[in-house]
Amino acid sequence: MKDKISAVLFISLGIFFLVGALRMPRMTEYGKYGAPGIVPAFFSIMVILLCTIMLLRKKKATFTDSRISPEIRKVESQRLLLATAIFLIYVLLLGKINFIVLTSTFLSAISIVFFRKKFILLVLSSVGVTVGIYYLFARVFLLPLP
Description:
The protein is mostly helical. The chain contains five helices and no strands. It has helices spanning 2-22, 38-56, 70-93, 99-114, 119-140. The longest helix is centred in the middle third of the chain and has 24 residues, at 70-93. It is flat and about 55 Å long.
């Protein structure tokens, strides 16, 4: 049930942003591929498509919330609070610290909090994802990152 509510909510948001993206100018001095609405429209379509798939997929058996022990709830609540604090620190430091350093540290911290797997693998994948994002925005989209 929660998946269906989330899917409908995000489909609605995707449609809202798609309409906004389609209202942006279609031609610029850089040509039709330099239009500011291309990337938001692409991401909006992806959100709509993926949430539609989530909405239509076959529902698997799930357990009810009442079966979760109080200890697990406490641990999960602590992890949620820690993740929220990490997100807030990231947002507050964004632009004040180098993007690659801050984002790599942020992704590593979140990965360690939620996955608790091999530390070196998490750090290397975080750095790789960050460099990939930086390259995509700086070289492909020609958008500077903080």
